[in-house]
Amino acid sequence: MRKTGSITVEGHEMTVSNPDKLLWPEAGLTKLAYLEKLVSLSPYLLRYTRGRYLTTIRFPNGIHGKSFYQKNAPQPKPPFVRTAQEGDISYVELDSLPTLLWLGNLACLEFHASFDRIGEPVYPTEWVLDLDPSREEEPRIMEAAALTGELLASLGIASVPKTSGATGVQIIVPLASRLSFDDLRQFGQFVGQYLATKHPSLFTIERLKKNRGTLIYVDYLQHYPGKTIAAPYTPRARVGATVSMPLTWEEVRSGVSPADFHLLNVERRLREKGDPLSGAAGQDLRPVLSFLKQGTKR
Question: Average per-residue pLDDT in the chain?
């Protein structure tokens, strides 16, 4: 027999279908437990999905069942759910706790946010380098992240590392200056090429995975309009119920693993560390980009 219940959030009553359904069986997380975790995550997650086009991944029968990406807003949708039209797609704007819990009840287990912002000129508010391992278990990923952070720091650029929640790490640089996505791709290519040349046994900028061997791909191409990133604090549909977690550089140098951060310990983590990304100062990359452009003209 299928069970249903209801919850009232910010004055909106919502149905919870199959609250006892196991979404992450190994972690023992039911749909109701998941919704409770989303409440705790919401002040952090919503900060990075608000004002962006949302792509979700739905797992109606839990992480081991069939899944599908959803860009168009699911129908029917409650009146409190806001949407944004882009081309022929009506995206959900994930900007409130009721919307988050509505999506959670639909078994949306991952939330991926666009780099471009809703209704604003196409200029990024952050620059992102994605360090993507070529193998499922990559013990060197934090070493790679630390080397990338050190390179940026040597250029006078402060950055924040973030686990993808899967196997990789993303290096995020909040921006204080208005730059184009193409300018930042040029800078990303420079950084990737430098790392691959300096550390050829660790990094590559080879796009084809079959040609990377065991190297870690410095993906500077993902940061572009229409593309998405696993939003900070999104859960991931993996056995360990991992969460995409912003880190401190001290944690990276200590060799933490992306698997260390998950729905079962995320509340304690947030109480202890807060959000390392929220207080990061915007960086002016124009001097570095100007220097690079001058160098290419010589």
Answer: 95
